[in-house]
């Protein structure tokens, strides 16, 4: 570990919870250099929806690289980009009736968010973006301005302007679904809220604590945005690509956002890639007005195409994800009931689930105990009070049960330490 302590920045985080050196990964397992396997319920923070080194995706990538095909192309045309766009249109956009243009803004989710915010301001000529309590959209300045976490915001070192925060669904004990709060601000010239360029929202808040927006709440938000000519941006970076069941987290609500951001699992293989999608009439960019060196990630185009071909030509993955999500909900609910005195309760949708506690100390201890038993999980929420589960969508029911058995054991051990008899 000396080389990491000596040379790597103190900003590193996950390695502090998992103090081993990893070197192999297959499917739902990752292995340290001693050969010990860990069941992965973290999945690259949602970047590995199809597991580690999926054989279909790996074979396409190796074949592409071994043929000396182009790797870096900025936004020049390439066969890999053409194949990805064609397949994305055929498998995702056309079946859902979505007439979106596709922008490749750079390699990461924050690039997709920055492009979406910038485009919304260019289209409307307005500055303010409305975001929501406990939302997370990235660590660059624009994305950070619409992120709720005070610790992350504090790292900016400068004022984070041109944003307004509103309560997310159920934030105020269920009193927000009718949007009277936002409507009154928009209609009152004394409210201090400038008419927004856009609203940015997650269908399920991942980093914020696995907080689920109801379909009714999302529909109400979409209707309000349309009424006041405010663009609606859905950040599906962590919850897209099938994490909640459907490809997009907002499909259940039956809405059509003006702008959608995707990253993490869109490459299918954990390779850097991001998309900003927007309605065709919103494509008002001038050539080169928004660019970046790594917006032509051809290896990611190849694995992304393979993932779409493998998993999204039919609804088998979606059906399996919903079923596995119900299994997770049932098992986690039993754990929560066993430890009701800790305030434990279950949140989530599909295969994005959270086990929340009143004390963050309990959640932290559960994650530590799980690691010692061979399971990787992280915590989320404003105080890290939620144990967060994002297993690969391809995880077998047997491995799901094994991981949930570990969580049951880890929770008992954690509660025994934190709340001894």
UniProtKB/TrEMBL annotation:
One of its GO terms (biological process) is ectoine biosynthetic process. It comes from the Bacteria. InterPro entries: Aminotrans_3, Aminotrans_3_PPA_site, Dat, Ectoine_EctB, PyrdxlP-dep_Trfase, PyrdxlP-dep_Trfase_major, PyrdxlP-dep_Trfase_small. Pfam families: Aminotran_3. Its cofactor is pyridoxal 5'-phosphate. Keywords: Aminotransferase, Pyridoxal phosphate, Transferase. It is an enzyme of class 2 (transferase). Its EC number is 2.6.1.76. Pathway: Amine and polyamine biosynthesis; ectoine biosynthesis; L-ectoine from L-aspartate 4-semialdehyde: step 1/3. One of its GO terms (molecular function) is diaminobutyrate-2-oxoglutarate transaminase activity. PANTHER family: DIAMINOBUTYRATE--2-OXOGLUTARATE AMINOTRANSFERASE, DIAMINOBUTYRATE--2-OXOGLUTARATE TRANSAMINASE. Belongs to the class-III pyridoxal-phosphate-dependent aminotransferase family. This is Diaminobutyrate--2-oxoglutarate transaminase.
């Amino acid at each position: 570990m000396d080389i990491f302590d000596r040379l790597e920045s103190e900003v590193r985080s996950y390695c502090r919870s998992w103090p081993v050196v990893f070197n192999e990964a297959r499917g739902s397992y990752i292995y340290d250099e001693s050969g010990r396997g860990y069941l992965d319920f973290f999945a690259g923070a949602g970047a590995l929806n199809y597991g580690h080194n999926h054989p279909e995706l790996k074979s396409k990538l190796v074949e592409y690289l071994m043929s000396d095909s182009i790797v870096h192309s900025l936004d020049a045309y390439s066969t890999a980009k053409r194949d990805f766009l064609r397949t994305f249109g055929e498998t995702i956009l056309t079946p859902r009736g979505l007439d979106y243009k596709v922008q490749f803004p750079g390699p990461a989710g924050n690039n997709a968010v920055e492009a979406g915010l910038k485009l919304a301001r260019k289209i409307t000529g307005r500055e303010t973006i409305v975001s929501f309590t406990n939302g997370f959209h990235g660590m660059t300045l624009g994305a950070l301005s619409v992120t709720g976490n005070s610790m992350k915001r504090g790292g900016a070192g400068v004022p984070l302007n041109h944003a307004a925060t509103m309560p997310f669904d159920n934030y105020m004990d269920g009193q927000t679904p009718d949007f009277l709060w936002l409507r009154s601000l928009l209609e009152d010239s004394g409210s201090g809220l400038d008419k927004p360029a856009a609203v940015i929202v997650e269908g399920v808040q991942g980093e914020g604590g696995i907080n689920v927006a109801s379909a009714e709440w999302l529909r109400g938000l979409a209707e309000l945005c349309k009424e006041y000519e405010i663009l609606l941006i859905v950040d599906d970076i962590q919850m897209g690509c099938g994490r909640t069941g459907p490809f997009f987290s907002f499909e259940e609500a039956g809405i059509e956002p003006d702008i959608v951001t995707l990253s993490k699992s869109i490459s299918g293989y954990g390779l850097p890639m991001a998309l900003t999608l927007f309605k065709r009439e919103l494509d008002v960019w001038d050539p080169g007005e928004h660019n970046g060196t790594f917006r032509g990630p051809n290896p990611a185009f190849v694995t992304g195409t393979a993932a779409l071909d493998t998993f999204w030509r039919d609804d088998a993955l979606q059906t399996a994800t919903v079923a596995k999500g119900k299994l997770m909900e049932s098992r986690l609910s039993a754990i929560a009931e066993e430890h009701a005195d800790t305030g434990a309760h279950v949140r989530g949708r599909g295969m994005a689930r959270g086990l929340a506690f009143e004390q963050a100390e309990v959640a932290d201890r559960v994650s530590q105990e799980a690691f010692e038993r061979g399971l990787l999980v992280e915590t989320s929420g404003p105080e890290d009070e939620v144990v967060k589960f994002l297993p690969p969508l391809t995880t077998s029911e047997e491995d799901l049960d094994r991981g949930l058995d570990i969580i049951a054991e880890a929770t008992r051990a954690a509660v025994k330490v934190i709340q001894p008899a």
